[in-house]
Amino acid sequence: MPKKGAQTGDSKEEEEPAKRLERFGSKILGDVERKQNPSFSVTTRTRSNIMYDEKEGFLKLGASSEEHNFINIAQSKRFMQTVAIAAKCHDFVKQNLHTTIRGLFYQLKYSLGEDIDENIFNEQSESNPLIEDLEVALDMKRENLNLNANRKGVLTGNMRVLDSFGNEKTEIDTSKMGRSGWAIPSDVDNDIEFVDVKAKYVLVVEKDALWQRLNEDGFWKKENAILISPQGQAARGTRRIIRKLADMGLPVYVFNDGDAWGWYIYWTIKTGSMNLAYIGRDIATPEARFIGVTMSDLERYEFLKSMTMRATEVDLKRAQEMLNYPWINQHKEWVSELKEVLKTKKKLEQDTLQGPRLTFVDDYIREKIKNKEFMP
Amino acid sequence: MPKKGAQTGDSKEEEEPAKRLERFGSKILGDVERKQNPSFSVTTRTRSNIMYDEKEGFLKLGASSEEHNFINIAQSKRFMQTVAIAAKCHDFVKQNLHTTIRGLFYQLKYSLGEDIDENIFNEQSESNPLIEDLEVALDMKRENLNLNANRKGVLTGNMRVLDSFGNEKTEIDTSKMGRSGWAIPSDVDNDIEFVDVKAKYVLVVEKDALWQRLNEDGFWKKENAILISPQGQAARGTRRIIRKLADMGLPVYVFNDGDAWGWYIYWTIKTGSMNLAYIGRDIATPEARFIGVTMSDLERYEFLKSMTMRATEVDLKRAQEMLNYPWINQHKEWVSELKEVLKTKKKLEQDTLQGPRLTFVDDYIREKIKNKEFMP
Questions:
Q1: Three-state SS for B320?
Q2: What CATH fold (topology level) applies to the domain B154-370?
Q3: Chain B nearest CA to A326, separation (Å)
Q4: Residue ranges of the alpha helices (H) in B70-185?
Q5: Which of A84, A105, A264, B371 minimizes the number of CB atoms within 10 Å of its CB?
Q6: A45 to A54, A135, A274, B259: CA distances (angstroms)
Q7: Closest CA relative to residue A192, chosen from A154, A163, A160, A166
Q8: Interface with chain B: mutation pick from A169, A179, A308, A351, highest number of B CBs within 10 Å
C-alpha cells in the first residue's frame, strides 16, 4: 500500500492518496446530485502567482486560485480530462502499480477504444498540465499518485535504505555500492525509509565525473559525508532526498561549475524552481550553501588563472538575470560574484581542480568546508 | 592494480596498461637515440577505413594505418600532444586513480604552467581525437588507461558484482537493488568481476520508465532474466556489459521504440557504431535480437492501431538510410519493417503497451520470447 509522506514535514500529505482522490470524486458527484455545476478549485500556476517566500526561502504559489467548471464551453473538455486522469490515478493507487505520465497518456488514449472518434487526448502536451492541476487540486505530489517522474542522480555514504517495493522489502547499504553508488529513485517518499544516517553533512557535486573522482578517493568515508551527484540538473527525486537529509539536521554543501548551469542547478536545489513552485516547499533546501567554484578562487589558487574559460552569451545573460532576482541579489556575495563574471567575461569549471593532481579537488572541498568559505 | 580485461575474449588486452605505455614511450625514445624520426603507427579511423565484418557481424576498422611522425611540420604538434597524453595516462595508471578526458585536459593545461605562453591544448576538442589515436596505437581501450567514459544505464537480476574499487572490495547483489537497480559503471572490466550469473537471458529495455515498470512487476524474477536499461543510447559501459553477458552464453533480447532512436540504439548494441568502430569487437553483440515494438505488432494487437504516432522526418530519413546499410538490408525482416514505416509514415512507442493495463507489457515480452518472434 502506498504510504503517506512520513518523516519529513509533509503535514499536508497525511491523507491516503486513494482517500483524497475519492473525496475529489465525491465532491464532483455531489455537485451533480445537487444539480450544481461540477467544479474544483486549482491554485493558479502562472508566473504572476509564483512568489518567493522571504521567511522560509523558497519559491511557492501565492493565494490566487481558479475554479474549473464542467458547464463552461472553455473549460468542459479540460474538466473532463482532469477527472479522467484522477480516475486512472485512483486505479494505479488501488492496484499498487506505478507508471509515468507517458504511460498514463496511453492508458487514457486506450480507454475510449475504437467506438468513439474523439480521443481524450491527442498529445501528451495536453495531459501534462492537467496532471499538475490535479497535484495542486489535491495538494499532493504526483509521486503519491503512483506517477514516476524521470530519475537521475547517485548517492553514497553511511546510510541504509529500506525499500519496500514490488511486494518485497530490500535493505540497501549505501556505503557498500562500490564505484556505482545508489541510483536515486523517482520516489523517495512512499514505501521507502532512510535509516542509520550517520553522516555529518551532505555534499552535492554537479558532475558525475567529479562524484566518481571523490568516491574513488574515499572522500565521503574520510569526511563522513553523504556524497550526491544530481548528474546535472537535479531531478525531483534528488531534490527531494536532499530536502529530507537537511530535515535530519545535515548541512548541505553544493559544489558546482561556476557558470550559468552550475548556478542554476544550485538555486534550483536551494529555492526550488518556477515550474515546480507548486510543490516548492517539499523540494527546496534553503539551508544549502555554495562552496564553489567561484571567481574568488582565482585569487587564492594561482594556477586557476590559466584555466578559466570565456563565459558564453548564455552565461552572461543568466548572470544578469540572476542579479534581478530579489532572492539572489539580497546576498552581497552573489552580487559580487556575478558582477565579476560580467566584468571579466570569464568562467571556471569544477574539473579544473584536478589540474595540479587528481586528488587536489578533495583538499579544495575539505578546506572550504572547514573554513566555512561558502556562499549563501 | 588495474587488471587486464579477463573473462571475455579480450585477448588483445593481455599486457598491463603501464607496460604497454612504457613500451610505447621506449619505442619513441629509441627512435631519438637511433637518430631516427620518432614515430608511431595508428590505424586510420576515417569513414573509408570503417567496415562491416561479415563473418562476425560488427563494425570494425580495416587495415589502413598511418604513421605519425615528430619531424613533420603538419604532425609535430599532434605528435607531442599524443605523447603528453600517454605520459599522463601512465601517471594515472601508476597512481591507480581515474579521471575523465576532461580531467586529463585540465592536467595537460596545468602541466606547462605559467612560464610558457603556449598551452599544450586550448580546447578539449583538440585532445579528444588524440585519446582515440592512443587507444588505437596501444590497441587498448581508454578504460584501461584509467579514463572514465560517461556512464548511464541500470541493471537488475540474479548476479553478483565483486567490485574492487578504491582499495576496498565490495560485493553487490544485483537482485537486491529494490526500485533503483545497479547503476552500470563506466568501466566493467578492470578490478570488477561478475559471478553467479544465474539468469536465462538478458532483456535490454530502451526506456528507464519501462525498466521500472517491469522491475515493479518482478518480471526479471519470474523469468529469471537480467534486466538492463541503457536509459536511451547505450554508454560504453552498458554496451560492454551486454557483450560480457552474451559471452557467458546468455541470449540478448532488445525491447525498444519502433522509431529512429529505437532502431539506432538496437543496431549500436548489436554491431557497434561508426565512431567506436576502433573498439568494435569489444562492445558489439551481434547475437542480440530485436523483440519490438514493430509495425507487425499492429496486426496482432488491434488496440495498437489507435496508438500509432506520425513518423517524423528524422524517422523516415533514418529508415531510408538503414535500408542502405548492407548489414541491415541483408535481413528481409528489417527491409519489410522499414518499408512499412516509409509507406505508412507511422511509428509506435514501447510505452503504448501499457494501454490496456499496466502489466500488459510483461505479457507482450514473455510471449515474443516464448514464440521466438524477434527480428535479427
A1: helix
A2: Dna Topoisomerase Vi A Subunit; Chain: A, domain 2 (3.40.1360)
A3: 35
A4: 76-95, 101-111, 124-138
A5: B371
A6: 19, 11, 9, 35
A7: A163
A8: A179
Q: Are A271 and A282 in contact (CB under 8 A)?
A: no
What are the distances in angstroms from CA A314 to CA A282, A311, A344, A350, B65?
29, 8, 15, 18, 42
Distance of CA A134 to the CA centre of its chain: 18
Residue A106 catalytic?
yes
How many CB pairs below 8 A link A and B? 184
CA distance A106 to chain B (A): 5
> Which of the four pLDDT bands, split at 50, 70 and 90, describes residue A119?
low
Residue partners of A332: CB distance under 8 A and separation at least 6: none
pLDDT at residue B28 in the model: 96
CATH class of B11-148: mainly alpha
Give residue A14's pLDDT band: very low, low, confident or very high (50, 70, 90): low
- Residue B167: φ, ψ to 5°: 65, 20
Per CB-CB distance under 8 Å, the chain B contacts of A305 are 114
A46 touches chain B (CB under 8 A): no
B314 touches chain A (CB under 8 A): no
Q: Tell me the percentage of chain A whose pLDDT exceeds 70.
A: 93
Contact A114 B306 (CB under 8 A): yes
Is the CB of B110 less than 8 angstroms away from the CB of A216?
A: no
Report whether the peptide linkage leading into residue B293 is cis, meaning its omega lies within 30 degrees of zero. Answer: yes
pLDDT on residue A8: 39
Distance CA B167, CA B96 (A): 10
Question: Cα(A151)–Cα(A149) distance, rounded to whole angstroms?
Answer: 6
- Whose cell is 570488477? That residue is B192
The pLDDT of residue B227 is 98
Residues A358-372 have pLDDT tens digits of 999 999 999 999 999
Return the residue matching grid coordinates 548517492.
A155
C-alpha to C-alpha distance for B10 and B361, rounded to whole angstroms: 36
Nearest 10 degrees: CA dihedral of A95, A99, A101, A102? Answer: -120
Q: Which residue of B has its CA nearest to A215?
A: B166
Mutate to test the interface with A, among B180, B206, B351 (most CBs of A within 10 A): B180
Select the residue from A118, A172, A180, A360 to test the B interface by mutation, using most B Cβ atoms within 10 A. A180
C-alpha cell at B36: 631516427
Per-residue confidence (pLDDT) for residue A337, from 0 to 100:
97
Between CA B142 and CA B121 the distance in angstroms is: 19
Q: Does B187 contact chain A (CB < 8 Å)?
A: yes
Beta bridge partners of B68: B40
Residue written as cell 509533509? A10
Q: What DSSP state is assigned to residue A185?
A: P
Q: Is B109 on the interface with A (CB under 8 A)?
A: yes
- pLDDT-flagged residues of chain B (< 50): 1-13, 114-117
Where along chain B do the CATH 3.40.1360.10 domains lie?
154-370
Portions of chain A given CATH number 1.10.10.10: 11-148
CB-CB under 8 Å, A170 with B98: no
Alpha-carbon gap, residue B370 to B282, rounded angstroms:
29
Computed over every residue of chain A, the mean pLDDT equals: 92
B142 touches chain A (CB under 8 A): no
Pairing of strands A154-156, B168-173: unpaired
How many C-beta atoms lie closer than 10 Å to residue A1's C-beta? 11
The three cell numbers of residue A208 are 558525475
Q: Residue A144 — pLDDT band, cuts 50, 70, 90?
A: very high
End-to-end CA distance of chain B: 40
Residue in B closest to A151 by C-alpha: B208
